[in-house]
Amino acid sequence: MAEPVVDAVRARVVSALPFDTGDPVLARAAWSRLAEPADAVAGALVAHLGAQAALEWVVDAVGDPARALRGSALEPLGSEVAADRLMAAVARWAPRLDRLDPRRELRVLERFGGTLLVPGDPRWPTRLPQLGPEEPFALWVRGDPDLAGLTEQSVALVGARASSAYGDHVAADLAAGLADRGFTVVSGVAYGIDAAAHRGALAGGAPTVAVLAGGVDRFYPPGNEDLLRRLADGAGAVVSEVPPGSAPFKQRFLARNRVIAAVSCATVVVEAAWRSGALSTARHATRLLRPLGAVPGPVTSGTSTGCHVLLRDGAAVCVTDAAEVIELAGPYAGALEPDRAAHDEQPVAGRAARTAARRRTPAEVEALGERARRVWDALPVRAAAGLDALARTAGLAPGEMLAGLGALEMHGLAAQEGGRWRRVPREGTRPAGRRADAEGGEPDVVHAGAG
Fold first, then answer.
1. 182: left (phi over 0), alpha (psi -120 to 50) or beta
2. Over the chain, what is the mean pLDDT?
3. pLDDT at 122
4. Is the dihedral of CA 104, 254, 37, 359 positive or negative?
5. Residue 382 has pLDDT above 70, yes or no
6. Which of 187, 243, 248, 349, by CA, is between 20 and 30 Å from 64?
């Protein structure tokens, strides 16, 4: 914890945060900025101490780690989170702590007519607590805020971005059939299957829920802005667990898939290649003991390989129409008590193809591991950013950030300019004035400072 950035944070953080930590809603909003989605250490800490006390403990831990760990209040937590994991998490959170003030994000949300939900609100999705320590701290919502009502009878329809005409047709047909029977369709509003499912539900006259990887202030992907605007205007709901201003990083896409699976009675993979991101949602559904279905496709179609693997391995039930999906959902089709149960990356044509190509993480970065990918996601293309801003954006401790930057620099993927860092564009790409994976209008330098 001796890095210069953390020392500076210690100097700036005083006994109280710049907002009322006694307000449980503000405290949970703050945690949604402080920790990355699915941070189980943060979830365990908040579950043990409460959101307000957990925030105050983190402030103390940044200032005096040894004293914070000696506190008797943490003793029962020791069986769940080892001290070294807890302090590593504090190091991740520290770069964001000195600028933490959820009132800013709430003002942005209010301008859009949105609503912040926290656990305990009667509108909170009934099944979400089954995620345990990975349950979101809060949900930022535009559109209909009654997520408990919307998802009481709901099915997640997910699949490939690079979908086929067959897949789009089946997704829309299933969604319309489910809508006609009173079910809400939940998906991730990506190009391809997700968008077809949302549009099919709207055509069937029912609301639909889109779960985003970034903030609800930015409509991503931009090609689906019209669809997202319809939902935000009342035809459903646009939901995110990260606050306004948050960019849709790859890791956040993977994390939001657990939310899609958790709020739904069942998950159906409509079309997916064998490495599709939609299979991540399928795995979350299986982990939650939720029914999982898959739609078969032509045996010659690579876009259905993932579905066929699920069916072959017995992980999913074959479904071909809305009636079979409802049968699959079975007893889960209704309110469920919390204790009841223990992407395809290929570009599509036109504008979607260009967007997907810009967002794709280079193979060289993937080969360096998860930390390098998070550092790469945080790096600007043109305007270089400082270490503290990058650490806040990536949700990494400064030491981890430096290690990741060093690995990228050694492989010619990052460059340092006067103590500030930027990406080195790969062959076949071009620098852009805005980050392609932060669509919604945030310039590189602003993104790095506000993430």
1. left
2. 83
3. 96
4. negative
5. no
6. 243
Per-residue model confidence (pLDDT) at position 417: 78
Q: Measured between alpha carbons, how far is 263 from 147 in angstroms, rounded to an integer?
A: 9
Q: How far apart are CA 122 and CA 134, in angstroms?
A: 20
Residue 377 sits at the vertex; the CA angle it makes with 83 and 272, to the nearest 5 degrees, is 100
Q: How far is CA 41 from CA 15, 88, 439, in A?
A: 23, 10, 29
Judge if 108-332 and 361-450 fold alike in CATH terms. Answer: no
Contacts of 372 (CB under 8 A, 6+ apart): 365, 404, 407, 408
Task: Look at residue 36 and tell me whether its pLDDT is greater than 90.
Answer: yes
3-state per-residue secondary structure call for the chain: CCCHHHHHHHHHCCCCCCCCCCCHHHHHHHHHHHCCCCCHHHHHHHHHHCHHHHHHHHHHHHHCHHHHHHCHHHHHHHHCCCHHHHHHHHHHHHHHHCCCCHHHHHHHHHHCCCEEECCCCCCCCCCHHHHHHHCCCCEEEEECCCHHHHHCCEEEEEECCCCCHHHHHHHHHHHHHHHHCCCEEEECCCCCHHHHHHHHHHHCCCCEEEECCCCCCCCCCHHHHHHHHHHHHHHEEEEECCCCCCCCCHHHHHHHHHHHHHHCCEEEEEECCCCCCHHHHHHHHHHCCCCEEECCCCCCCHHHHHHHHHHHCCCCEECCCHHHHHHHHHHHCCCCCCCCCCCCCCCCCCHHHHHHHHHCCCHHHHHCCHHHHHHHHHCCCCCCECHHHHHHHHCCCHHHHHHHHHHHHHCCCEEEECCEEEECCCCCCCCCCECHHHCCCCEHHHHHHHC
Question: Looking at residue 348, what is its pLDDT?
Answer: 30
Please name every residue paired with 154 in a beta bridge, in sequence order, or none if there are none: 184
Question: How long is the chain?
Answer: 451
CB atoms within 10 A of CB 418: 6
- Residue-wise pLDDT for 101-112, tens only, equals 999 999 999 999
pLDDT (mean) for 129-156: 97
Domain limits, the chain: 4-100, 108-332, 361-450
Q: Which fold has domain 361-450?
A: Arc Repressor Mutant, subunit A (1.10.10)
Residue 99: is its pLDDT beyond 80? yes
Q: Among 65-74, 203-212, 243-252, 277-286, where is mean pLDDT lowest?
A: 65-74
**pLDDT over threshold 60, residue 414:** yes
Q: Tell me if the domain spanning 108-332 has CATH number 3.40.50.450.
A: yes
- With 90 as the cut, is the pLDDT of residue 83 above it? no
Give the span between the Cα atoms of 305 and 162, in whole angstroms.
13
